[in-house]
Write a structure and sequence with these properties.
Blueprint (H helix, E strand, L loop, with lengths): L12 H10 L3 H17 L3 H28 L20 H7 L3 H4 L3 E6 L5 H14 L4 E5 H13 L3 H9 L3 E7 L6 H14 L4 E6 L7 H4 L2 H12 L2 E6 L4 H23 L1
Parallel strand pairs: 1-4, 1-5, 2-3, 3-4
Length: 270
């Protein structure tokens, strides 16, 4: 088969589209004629024209891959780090949090632990970091602790737990939200321990908890297992300890204050 290319004085659009479809280059198929006209007007060479087309195809594929990663992550909310109110948590170093979005801790297979009382934005931070990493090409998965425990228990009953753990390993980062809000059964606690142990120094975990580490036995029950779990999670981890006033409380208070001020103005106007 000849590797040479025949240059035709007149192009054949139908044939060009056939080639592009067969090669699976949809962005080029959509744009090549418009870009050709722009190239003629700008009087640029063939290589510049080719570069512009390849850039279109590359950008579209990157955007599509990014969107697919976001969908597969199963984030419950579209939270972004850019929208987080760092001023409400003055002890939290904004630069350190934003640095997490670069993904170095995932490259080094480290963990991210976010601990603090309810209403401080733990879930927002967790999702924000996860979304940023999806945009950087990392495979991320979001689960609540309760949903993860249920998923593991079901897999164990159906004798597919090893396969499920292997599927989790395909993700660079698994985010586990709301660990500590509800106690687990002994079976669920042991399965969660197995999940975290399976990822230890293999891939990263990010989690949020409303409990200090000293109180994790309230959730997992067995002191020895809890100590072993914490040993694995805390080792080579970034720990964010959030201290402040509940966002929901502040929002409710601000709403009530605004409502009272509005009522006061109405009374005065009467």
């Amino acid at each position: 088969m000849s590797l040479g290319a025949t240059l035709h004085p007149q192009p054949h659009p139908a044939l060009i589209l056939t080639y592009l479809k067969w090669l699976k280059l949809p962005a080029i198929a959509t744009a090549y004629q418009d870009v050709a006209r722009d190239a003629e007007k700008a009087q640029v060479g063939y290589l510049s024209y080719l570069e512009a087309l390849l850039e279109r195809e590359f950008t579209q594929r990157q955007d599509r891959s990014q969107q697919q990663r976001l969908v597969r992550a199963h984030f419950p909310y579209a939270k972004r780090l850019e929208d987080f109110d760092f001023s409400a948590l003055p002890r939290l170093e904004k630069a350190s949090v934003l640095n997490l979005a670069h993904g170095n801790f995932v490259k080094e297979r480290q963990n991210l632990l976010i601990v603090g009382a309810s209403g401080l934005g733990k879930t927002h931070l967790l999702i924000g970091v996860g979304r940023a990493l999806c945009q950087r090409g990392y495979k991320v998965l979001f689960r609540t602790a309760a949903a993860l425990a249920t998923e593991l228990e079901l897999a164990q009953r159906e004798l597919r737990l090893p396969r499920l753990l292997a599927q989790f390993r395909r993700f660079d980062l698994v985010l586990v939200d709301e660990l500590g809000y509800l106690p687990f059964s002994q079976t669920a606690a042991e399965l969660l321990f197995q999940f975290f142990a399976d990822r230890y120094e293999r891939a990263s975990v990010g989690l949020t908890s409303n409990l200090d580490f000293a109180h994790w036995t309230e959730v997992f029950g067995q002191e020895q297992m809890t100590a072993a779990l914490l040993d694995r999670l805390v080792h080579r981890s970034t720990i964010l300890s959030l201290v402040g006033e509940s966002y929901r409380f502040r929002h409710s208070l601000a709403t009530q204050t605004t409502s009272r001020e509005h009522e006061r103005r109405e009374v005065m106007s009467d």
